[in-house]
From TrEMBL, chains A, B, C, D, E:
Coiled coil: none
Organism of origin: Haloarchaeobius iranensis
Pfam families reported in the protein's UniProt record: PAC2 (PF09754)
Record-linked SUPFAM superfamilies: Cgl1923-like (SSF159659)
Name this protein carries in UniProt: Proteasome assembly chaperone family protein
Region (Disordered): 221-245
Bias-annotated ranges (Basic and acidic residues): 221-236
């Protein structure tokens, strides 16, 4: 069975989690990676599911090997982040969702799930918010937009939302218009400025995201390409219901 | 194991259920969606099977996320509806049938399963009725036609009927001639007017179905296309036995 | 687990069963369907295996839905028939064989398994008989021919014979030369006249088979086509060992 | 689970078994079939594994149906033979190996596993012997050659040797140069004359093998063709390690 | 379940293990094979997992058959080596990793996992070291380089490192630049001289590796070709994270 292995003692009870699984435009991953770096978040734990790829990841200038899916925390900000270096294969999605949502429930953490919605944007990407359990009120207070049409969230983020709904966990989903083909740091910026920031009450410096947008696009080009070719179950994505069907 | 999670306290004991899984012409889905809307039916529960796609659905102007297969009820009309936004994959069909029929048995609900039969129609689509358990009498009283030739019902509807027959649940199957390639609101209208209406004793206003036929055809074009390409197990369909073999 | 659900109280103890799974030339199915019709056999029970296609079958002018594999009986003739509307997929073959042979053993029924052997025929199709357990004597008494060369029976009929042999059930296999590509009512006639008739001691009127041969060929063309393309495990067939290898 | 069903009471305790699964050049099968015929060996038992093809085999002029993998015995010669009419599919290989080696251990039988090694031969095919457990001494006494280079035995014979080694059963492997594409009765003759004969101490008349070589080649052409196209796991074969990798 | 079968009584407690699964440039396999030969290491045990290919390996001039994955030991040098003649298929990787790491933990052995990193080399191949548990200190003492950029280790070696990290076993990973297409004895030499030698404190004569480089390249060409075409899970490889994604 999947489980989360805690690496450091940190109090994350009642915190909010930002989820960064790869998907359309890599919007969730870019936003989450930015937060991990910006707040110098510490490794809280690692995620272990039988069907996650059994690989080992290393980082520049560091000896320690890590598994590809990890949880970071900034306890002072009541902030937790789910970071992944790899897509999750279709077989792992449900097991992973069970395991993550179980842990969120135990730790009383409110998740903020992130997804791109492929769109030809004009001006600032539009953002809307959806919810499971009783988290709808959080979105109302902040005047985050309602869904403009019927739609579906698939991929790991869809599975997390589905599982959260089934067990009644309060959770939020933020959906932002995104470039369908390339990494979209601009959409990630909107997620942070208009969604994650207000929801968590944390002020986030997004200048790096803006200044380094081109560099991020290049660096993540290959992963974005991989996600574009991934199966529906493997890439987080929101879509109008009529397009999904 | 698959299960049905109840969301609201409603008395559905002894009601009739209308089943709207996608299939040929989307006749069952269009009829069921119409009833859900027309009677402003409330969410009674959601269906959870391990092999159903773990996605999450949202609706225009609403925060709440829902799973893709749901049960609605109009207790005053003794009416229940099974609504699905997605095809059911082949692996889920049997588990889903077990779970649904078990619940129908427990709640003493009489199901009305709906299926299209691909045909070149001339005039009003023809309708006939078949049954499991002792429900044949219901059809006799209403003078609903008998099958004009040997045939087979496959897909989710076929699996529901098969399971209902195995456990001896009283159930009805309504089969209507349908366009094989496109959404067929006209066939759905016949299902309601000549089948569901008489069976349930409910008067249903079908003017929307008639007036908005073109719109429905467009809106559901993509799903109809998907069902046409689906495997036999995934798309509800009736066929003459000689064509099925 | 597979099981047989009894629908009517009939005494079939000590009867003989004729098996009509689809295979080369549909010889077993045509012969069995003819017997069911000719003797107006009644539904005795239905066969339920997890891996049989979960579909539902209806018949002209009748309300009652039935599963695709069924057992009929004519108790006065001590005759039972296994009728199938569908091929059995490869995954179901072994489970089905276990379940059928277990039931035959419990009810003390002697099965007569039927198979075509693809051949360019000249004159009346040749027939030979093989056996499991101690049923060889039955064939000797009737002077039914011995196999003219080494061979193998595959498909559902092969699995039934294999299982019967393993548990030591007395069973008979009748193999008849058959057209490889098309439904072969003539071969089915030989099975009945020179095999099933003598074995069961029942006089069977085969005029319908002769008169309606062309009609049967047309009606079952599609199924015969399907069987020709089926995998080895799904289509009953006898072959010389050198051709099978 | 796989098991061996005993058909006749015979004392095979302490005997030697000759293994004739199909593989390169069909050398093991040809040698084993020859011994079964030459010594008029009797049916001792049949092999039943869930993943062996559920087919039924008949022989010219005989009523009795048999499963495709069988064990014959000539108790007076202390000789047992494993005869197979079919290749073993990949899924069955390990289960079959477990089951056969377990039985050999219980009955205290020393197996002689047979395999061809594809080679361009000049003159008499070369033969060498390998072993598991403590059977190496048997080969030493008889001056059977050692392997001329590093190599690997795959297919059913490889699985038998692997399993025998794991449980510590004394077993012998005889590897003979063989034609890679066609049935090779000449290599089978060498197996018998220079390997099986000396090991078992039985004098075997091989004149039939020599006289009927052409006929055997023709008769088994189709099976040899099948084995050439089989997956590595399904066709017994020895190869130099550098070729296998 | 996978297990390691001990063949000889040797004290390996507290030793270091060198891992030689095939991967990019076969660097780990070439280094490990060299050590086994150079120190005339003895067979300690054999590795048995259900999903490892059930084949049997023989060596020139020796009777004894062996399974394809084996452990050798040189107790005087406190050295253990994992030698494999075959790639490990994807299904076996996790089971194999569980089984190996469990045994390493029980025997208190520190593993040195080896992997190539595809690169256009100029001059001596670069080497860096990574670690699990508390083994980072070993690398620090020896001034082995840190990773120059973010990266991922996949294949069996990645699975071993992943599992070692999960259970907290102290383990070392050595990554060396390697030719991507051909066996790379030069990279293997660097692994030994600059990594394994210093870590184990053993002086290793590498003249054979240098003198026989061309021969080794030829001999292992086919396996290197196979590894190049293997799936990610089957071939040990390090890569920059941006290339892996």
């Amino acid at each position: 069975m999947g489980h989360i292995k805690q690496h450091a003692e940190m109090d994350v009870d009642g915190a909010m989690l930002v989820e960064g699984m790869p998907g359309v435009g890599l919007v969730g991953k870019i936003a989450t990676d930015h937060l991990v770096e910006e707040f110098d978040m510490e490794l809280y734990g690692t995620v272990h599911c039988d069907s996650l790829a059994p690989i080992s990841v290393y980082h520049e200038g560091e000896r320690e090997l890590l598994p590809p899916v990890r949880i970071y925390a900034a306890p002072d900000e009541d902030l937790v982040a789910l970071q992944s270096d790899i897509p999750v294969n279709a077989a792992a999605v449900s097991e992973f969702a069970d395991c993550l949502v179980g842990w969120l429930t135990d730790e009383d953490i409110t998740p903020v799930f992130l997804s791109g919605l492929p769109a030809e944007k004009s001006g600032v990407p539009e953002l809307f918010g959806i919810s499971t359990g009783d988290a709808g009120g959080l979105l109302e207070e902040l005047d985050i937009d309602l869904p403009p049409e019927n739609g579906v969230v698939s991929g790991p983020t869809g599975a997390f939302l589905n599982e959260a709904g089934e067990v009644g966990l309060d959770g939020v989903g933020l959906v932002v218009q995104s470039n369908e083909r390339f990494p979209d740091p601009e959409a990630a910026r909107v997620l942070i400025e208009h969604g994650i920031g207000p929801l968590t009450g944390i002020e986030v410096d997004i200048s790096e995201l803006v200044d380094r947008a081109e560099e991020i696009r290049k660096q993540k080009e290959k992963l974005a390409e991989k996600m574009r070719q991934a199966k529906d179950e493997e890439s987080s994505k929101a879509q109008p219901l009529r397009m999904y069907q």
